[in-house]
Amino acid sequence: MEDKPARRRLVLVPASAQGHISPMMQLAKALHLKGFSITIAQTKFNYFNPSDDFTDFQFITIPESLPESDFENLRPVLFLLKLNKECQESFKDCLGQLLLQQSNEISGVIYDEYMYFAGAVAKEFNLPNVIFSTTNATAFVCRSVFEELDANNVLAPLKDSKGKQDELVPGLHPLRIKDLPTSKIASLDKILELYKNTVDKGTASSVIINTSSCLESSSLSWLQQEGLDIPVYPIGPLHMVASTSTSLFEENKSCIEWLNKQKQDSVIFVSLGSLALIDINEAIETALGLDNSNQHFLWVIRPGSIRGSEWIEHLPEEFSKMVSGRGYVVKWAPQKEVLAHPAVGGFWSHCGWNSTLESIGEGVPMICRPFSADQNVNARYLECVWRIGIQVEGELDRGVVERAVKRLMVEEEGDEMRKRAVSLKEKLRASVRSGGSSHNSLEEFVHFMSTL
Ligand code: UDP
């Protein structure tokens, strides 16, 4: 009897955050469906406990000895720089052992762009290694030219709080200097160091990006034709390609029952992702603005996401009245299900890339309140390129919140955005269907891996 051919194995290395783990697991599932065996190599930080969805996968832990306090206090930029140094040797041991043990041939290593140590190690073993960008193509372009922008003094306004950050970045229209992916809690030097490593394609054989060409054709063309000399595969939105359950937190599904009682397009969903923090004052002004807008709202307030509070104990007493009237608050929601619900007519978001893709994927227009990194880029594109978002900038007070919510939920301007969002949703859905650009790109990637 002939032996069955061994499945080729891919080793995937996600970064330790909800917004990175979810798309990596979606990618893993998509590749598993294409016939690859999958090993997930993760660190202890935000360890993803596999659900029944992943029984065929192998999970291994990359040993390291960084304290949890580093994860809390240094993330993202300084923590990532440290983690990459720390993991290089231990991942070498992990991969070495896998190569010895595996009856399946290892075809390559796919690593989150922020886990670049994995690319260097794969290279040492002569294994094909693939960068996986969980952010969008435009943010990848920004990181690729960051050093050049710095050398040309374009970033100077970011070094000085009074600098003119409203000016457009040459060559990156419509991004302004303040829309570039930066972080208020890390120095520009450290950000430059990190970005240099994330876009170092010297070792990579290709790049996968969780985007679709219908969203970012010019950024993708630049990466494919000028920026990178390796193949680029836009195969997103991955949550539409392979749906999986990947939540690190417990989802409160009672909000779906509450949504079932609301009218079509009448609810604004408010959620700032898994990492963003706000001050108590901003939380109070948001609550009062939502109340004054007279709209129904579903608000995710993650425990610890209001600085100095465990949850909502410091919000004013009127808050509970408000919530029992027009609002509903949960600690964590089944976000994709919420956005797909007919009652949801708008999304107040920090514009993380997953949230952005999930919202566009359901045709829901957004109010954009970005905090850092690629969120700024996404917000700018939502407002100025796809024209399905309203960006709220500067200090937040109740008047600003009320105005933005009314513009999106009540006024004609919001209806126009909703129509554009629905049309973009159709394009996204077409791109992942058979014959669509993301679908074809995934096929090409699978073929590319089999030729290496
Ligand atoms: N999310 C969720 N429930 C919530 C809030 C967020 O499931 O109550 C998910 C959301 O669907 C998205 C991810 O968490 O997939 C957040 O990723 P994103 O890139 O938007 O932001 P980040 O958390 O990385 O800042």
UniProtKB/TrEMBL annotation:
InterPro entries: UDP_glucos_trans
Keywords linked to the UniProt accession: Glycosyltransferase, Transferase
Molecular function terms, GO-annotated: glycosyltransferase activity
Presence of the UniProt keyword Transferase in the record: yes
Similarity section: Belongs to the UDP-glycosyltransferase family.
Name of the protein: UDP-glycosyltransferase 76E11
Native organism taxonomy: Eukaryota, Viridiplantae, Streptophyta, Embryophyta, Tracheophyta
